[in-house]
Design brief:
The chain has 287 residues and is α/β, with parallel strands linked by helices. Helices cover 29% and strands 21% of the residues. Helix 4 crosses helix 5.
């Protein structure tokens, strides 16, 4: 078929060469507004914090990066978004890492599938975008971020960590099984079991024996979407495999307890989890 004829055909899906999201959202995603009065805002004093473009397979994706304004190279931490994309909360987490001496990068991993920041409904976000994101593509994009950080001269990728929240928490487990260069991961309430699909063929519990870096899992005992019994199954699987990975289960704590911009925020557990994250990264060479 001639190229001009192809261009006349109706588009049913975006190809891998087309990127829906070419710049990051400003502020908070529509689906999470209004935001809580407890929302934490980290300033950029002493930091370089801005949007960058990361070369990936077939193009480039936008990302938010934050790091100290001088010095380096710095330990690198990949910050993996929730289902709401790289909105203000994820950017703020990058700035928090930068304040502690990291180069933190949060790539927009839904760039090919859709702009979730403009979608007001969580179910729409999941059905139209999140369900269409291949795990293999996410792994490839995260590898590209690591390569970009190393090439920039500002990232010390021998001290590589990853953390993620909700959707991103699951990705942390997957990436720890994918990249042998990773030193440590911290997964915040990421799904551990689920129905596999062609795009998401493996669950974290399937990859326990394949983990190449220790992961600290932070979970809530009252999480309606991640039953305690699945968390316990994962813990038992890790122990059976002799893994260095660990799971902390906070009693009477909901999903999203670190999300200070949402009603689910629990300051005490969030603070404890962040302290544990810093200790975990330091213990395993990602800080």
């Amino acid at each position: 078929m001639r190229e001009d004829a192809v261009s006349l055909l109706p588009k049913t899906e975006f190809t891998r060469r087309e990127f829906v999201v070419t710049s990051l959202a400003a502020g908070f995603a529509m689906a999470v507004q209004p935001v809580s009065g407890q929302t934490i805002t980290t300033n950029t004093i002493g930091l370089t914090a801005d949007e960058v473009k990361i070369p990936v397979e077939s193009g480039e994706i936008p990302a938010y990066r934050a790091m100290p304004a001088s010095g380096g190279p710095f330990p690198v931490v990949l910050v993996v978004q929730e289902i709401f994309g790289v909105h203000e909360h994820i950017k703020d987490i990058c700035r928090r890492f930068a304040k502690s001496g990291h180069l933190a990068v949060a790539p927009e991993l839904f760039a090919r599938q859709g702009d979730v920041s403009k979608m007001p409904d969580v179910n729409e976000i999941i059905s139209k975008v999140v369900s269409k994101v291949p795990d293999a593509e996410v792994m490839s994009d995260l590898d590209a971020v690591v390569a970009w950080a190393q090439k920039s001269g500002k990232g010390d990728t021998s001290k590589l960590g990853i953390t993620g929240f909700c959707w991103g928490g699951r990705i942390v487990w997957l990436y720890a099984a994918h990249n042998p260069r990773l030193k440590a991961g911290v997964a915040w309430y990421g799904r551990l079991l689920g129905q596999p699909s062609d795009l998401q063929p493996k669950n974290p519990i399937d990859l326990v024996a394949s983990l190449k870096a220790p992961v600290l899992g932070l979970y809530g005992g009252s999480d309606q979407g991640i039953p305690v019994e699945t968390v316990e199954k994962m813990r038992q699987a890790l122990q059976a495999a002799g893994s260095k990975s660990e799971i902390i289960l906070y009693p009477d704590t909901p999903h999203g307890f670190h999300a200070d911009y949402r009603p689910s925020y629990r300051p005490e557990q969030a603070k404890d989890g962040w302290k544990r994250l810093q200790e975990w990264f330091k213990k395993y060479g990602a800080a």
